[in-house]
Predict the structure.
Amino acid sequence: MIEVKNVCKEFSDVKVLYDISAEFLPGKTNLTIGQSGSGKTVLLKCIAGLHSVTSGDILYDGRSFCAMNEKQRKEIRKEMGMVFQGGALFDSNTVEENVMFPLEMFTRMTFEERRERANECLKRVNIINANKKYPSEISGGMQKRVAIARAIALNPKYLYCDEPNSGLDPVTSIVIDNLIKDITVEYNITTIVNTHDMNSVMEIGDKIIFIYKGRKKWEGTSAEIFSSGVKELDDFVFASERMKKIREMSK
Amino acid sequence: MLKLFYHTGRYFLLLKRVFSRPERWRVFFRQSLREIENIGISSITIVLIISMFMGAVCAIQMAYNLQNPIIPRYLIGLGTRETLLLEFSSTIVALILAGKVGSNIASELGTMRVTEQIDALEMMGVNSACYLVLPKIAAFVFFIPVLTIFSMAIGLLGGYIASFGTVGLTPHDYVVGITSFFRPFYVTYALIKSVVFAFIIATVASYHGYYTSGGALEVGKASTHAVVYSSIVVLMFNLILTKLLL
Ligand SMILES: Nc1ncnc2c1ncn2[C@@H]1O[C@H](COP(=O)(O)OP(=O)(O)OP(=O)(O)O)[C@@H](O)[C@H]1O
Ligand SMILES: [Mg+2]
């Protein structure tokens, strides 16, 4: 379980996050939604420890991440997998080497075992016949999927995905969403996904946190999202005329 | 001034992180081999070209300067050799490599920073500074003596070629010159200098690349800074080492 307690984050002069608290349970896909620039990525990076928080605390199963020393952080990081917004694949390594990288660093597997595991992960994200290609030679959506394969290679306990399906077509998006959901349940992972795709929200959102200009405005389940009564959330969800019409019709 | 302290401090903090035990020695050696190819082998051509020209120009100028009946002509070859050994094959080559290798390192690390690849490494629990920077330092420091010796040889060859058709210098005098009164310490001195320079170039460039923030524009700036600052520091240490060693 991950607990975020009263987290504030400032960059030299700009305040990005204001007093955010939330809980993320294992085996559940937790979504953070919000407009572009609302602070989703910054929050996720604070949780992952890539940004230090200005005030507040992040608890991993009750242990404070901020109070840990370098060595303890390193241990806990081996249990984290992260998919960055831009993929962040290593350009000088092939697709296969990218997925094998965490295995090589942190396990005692032989080369063959590593390759087998890498192929297994790549197959799960529907990447076949691209093992020897470099990240610059595959499409953006494929890069995202390889990044997901890399993140799940070590069977993480915590999985963070920053907009895993931006730039993907609807069909692949759903495949990815379901994949994230499946492995979350299968391995009892604590998953946090940033998204602004309403499809994913409805499909896989067990728990949803809505961030508006750096503040948490609402939290609940996907069933409750249409009747939240929070104006900012309604503006976000019913941004298009079509969605508004659907709301009218369902009434 | 405050900025200077800030950067120096951060530079040494980075070095502290760089010089820790690699996670996996096998990975470290593989990366180092890759960097030897990337940084070392690929610099051979440029070192060959500049050394050839520098040797030739040096010999011609020496012949022009020592145009005097009472000065034995073999001194021209000797002077050329000393200049090449003492200064050109280490310092000038280092300055050229600061441009080539320095910008290469800074832009590579800078790109990795802005595309979140360094974050991805940190996220996995890998010491990104050690994983990325240490192989570069090791490869460059290990390979630069090869480049220096190579540059010396090619420089002397350049001078020899120039001695054909230069007024006041014959190939025979030149060869006599470059083979007399040889002091091996000059080679040691050049090698010590070049190893220090390689360390400076690799670390200063890595520093600028590693701490890039922003986007593609900043990567460009980082690589310019890497070249400018590593050149300045190289020249500073050239003076310091010369004072100390000669
Ligand atoms: N390193 C940084 N330094 C200063 N400001 C930053 C930094 N990173 C992010 N910000 C600011 O924080 C705010 C939130 O950014 P963030 O990347 O979290 O948005 P986001 O919700 O992920 O948006 P998107 O959906 O477009 O990815 C932005 O206004 C941005 O300018
Ligand atoms: Mg974002």
In short: The beta strands of chain A are 2-11, 14-24, 29-33, 55-60, 63-64, 80-83, 158-162, 190-195, 207-212, 215-220.
